[in-house]
Amino acid sequence: MENILRVESFQIGPLENNSFLVIDPESRETVLVDPGMGSEVLSKVIAERGLRVTAILNTHAHFDHTYNNEYFRQTLGCPLLLHESDLQLLRDMSHHAALFGFPPRTSPDPDAFLKPGQEIRVGRGALRVLHTPGHTPGGVSFAAPGLVITGDTLFAQSIGRTDLPGGDYDQLVESIRTALYALPESTEVYPGHGPATLIGYEKRHNPFVKGLPAHVL
User: Fold this and answer.
1) Are strands 147-151 and 6-12 parallel, antiparallel or unpaired?
2) Burial letters 120-137, b for 16+ CB under 10 A, else e
3) Could you tell me the pLDDT band of residue 213, with boundaries at 50, 70 and 90?
């Protein structure tokens, strides 16, 4: 399939989160993924380029990825979407931010819950929801032809931490192998922190998770 959508990544905030605008260039229809700390600057980008944001998507509910949910929910007036298994984590966001020394911030509850296999329309294209738990119970990735946004599941030559509440190392590795490594090797990976990479490169070189399990080959 043709790669219709374009991903623009913005590294922002004290924890160097990646926030994303996924854009259909023809219609300018856009979704905002993981509006973390400092992401208010994306408001200027959205306005100057005449982008029409139709949804706010969270890959998971850790505070550094959801810090500006409320800001964008109010300013853009579009729905907020999250996997249901991370709802309590989202509701505890203020507490978790304070534990890490950041000003407490709350988020509205999602307007709807993301479901595995669901397609989020973005103009002529769509993002497919992949449930990729392990970093958090409700962690998801968003895939389209040629690209996948992985949150804190898979990084360039690394993986998400699993020592926080709800983390599960075995589950994380299974998510990577069965959901992410099953994508074409040319798929560009946009993680929640750090640089982009490729599925094929990670399958061969990621020191934490290499190759596919036998039942996926």
Assistant:
1) unpaired
2) bebbebbbebbbbbbbbb
3) low
pTM over 0.90: yes
Going 103 to 191 to 131 to 135, the CA torsion angle's sign is negative
The pLDDT tens digits of the residues spanning 48-58 come to 999 999 999 99
Residue whose token pair is 């119970």: 137
Q: Which CATH class is domain 6-205?
A: alpha beta
Question: Is residue 128 classed as helix, strand or coil in its secondary structure?
Answer: strand
| 74-121: pLDDT as tens digits | 999 999 999 999 999 999 999 999 999 999 999 999 999 999 999 999
By DSSP bridging, strand 197-198 and strand 188-191 are antiparallel
Residue with tokens 């905002």: 32
List, in sequence order, the alpha helices (H) in 110-198: 169-175
Give pLDDT, residue 208: 96
CB contact at 8 A, 159 and 206 = yes
d(CA 214, CA 172): 17
* CB crowding 86-106: b at 16 or more within 10 Å, else e: bbebbeebeebbeeeebeebe
* Residue 32: strand pairing partners: 21, 56
Side-chain-facing half-sphere of 45: CA atoms under 13 Å? 17
Three-class DSSP labels, 7-18:
EEEEEECCCCEE
